[in-house]
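ok so dumb question maybe but i'm new to this and my supervisor (M.) told me to 'just get the structure for histidine kinase' and walked off. so i did the thing. is this what she meant?? sequence i used:
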Amino acid sequence: MQTEIAADIAAIEAISSVPTILEAVAAITGLRFVCIARVGADTWTTCAVLDRIGFGLKAGDGLDVATTLCEQVRDTGCPVIIDNVSEDARYRDHHTPRIYGFQSYISLPIVRPDGSYFGTLCGLDPLPADLSNTATVSSMGLFAKLISKHLDSELKLTESQSALLYERDTSELREQFIAVLGHDLRTPLSSILLGAELLKREPLSAQAMGVLERMRRSALRMSALVNDVMDFTRGRMGGGIALGLHDEAGLQHWLDQVVAELRGAYPEHRIEVDIDVAGKVYCDPGRIQQLLSNLLKNALVHGARDTPVLVRAFARGGDLDMSVTNGGPAIAPATIEQLFKPFWRAAGHAASEGLGLGLFIVSEIARSHGGTLEVTSGDGATRFTFCLRAGESAERRRAARA
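this is what came out, is it supposed to look like this??
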């Protein structure tokens, strides 16, 4: 039995999109603990987890299945959804919410394509949440089915090379699904942000203002995740990231704004700047700003904290050279080859750092501009360098779209 459970945990860990699925579930539901659990006749085992409330479970940890509501999901094959335990006649006196201290909860069955039961996609939070609405339940059901498809794909890949075709089809369906989901999330996110801005104008207590600011920051982070996913799908499915190219004379202002915003977001880090952008640069300034923002965030998150991050940018005659350098151990050549792949993270980096799309989007912006992007790492420093040559970029852009 233990060997079988270990194999199932390994199968979930082998699915590269699982961290992304958990992030998306947390963003859609507002739940701060989300996991995929293997549920057997007498066992409940965590296979993958996103924990922002310090619940304490990690992959491989188990619970007494009799204390969980996943046992009910297993026996009935039906989801369990609770918006607010204290107002739910069926569950307000149930032992499970008392044991684990939650007010909102959702659990959906994961069934393998051959009909055998695997476990649940579940989440909980100490605070109430609106989980029973049709959009949330439908999205969660799609995620459970997506996990099921991936489990089947991993099994087939171990049996035959022919499963590569299946994986390719599944990948395309996943990207289409993410594109639709990202598009549909934008409208409610915009409403949340607009509501937060309007409420800030009203007289509120200090406690209420604190809650409102946390809501606003969470919505902004969700919006950034959605934008990354939309850029990913455009890059993978639409022939590259779309650009609004023109001769931009104020690019220095766009770049200075990025540095100012990230200095505010990471006050514990030092950022040294050497930016001298003169004249016009034929580019999409918003996308160049996004490129610098992603590179600078990457340096602040992964670089040595006792070493300043250096941002340099120079433009003359329409040519642009821009680099971001951070201190820290050298990156191995094999790792550098993986950096610009979507959803890729180096071992030991948590899913909470993002979806793993930032550097992929950087590479797509550089490619769509017809520019070059290089990484050098050694002697205690890592540098990302973007170069755009006015006389060469048009030809490179045509080649990138070919």
